[in-house]
Amino acid sequence: MAGGCRLTRDVPALLKSAGFTPTYQMGYVARPKSLAYNFWGDATCP
Length: 46
Fold this sequence. Notes:
The protein is an alpha+beta fold. The protein has one domain (11-44). It has one helix and two strands, in the order αββ. The chain has a two-stranded antiparallel sheet with strand order 1-2. The N and C termini lie far apart (37 Å). 0% of the residues are buried.
């Protein structure tokens, strides 16, 4: 139903462990709160 979505995934930690440097923000977007918490930003490779 959710296409493999895992809500407990630690996105910044996964990016760091893969060798990337994440620069991100997180927060709610204009949707119902149960669907609206997001991360957005960039990840660069050193």
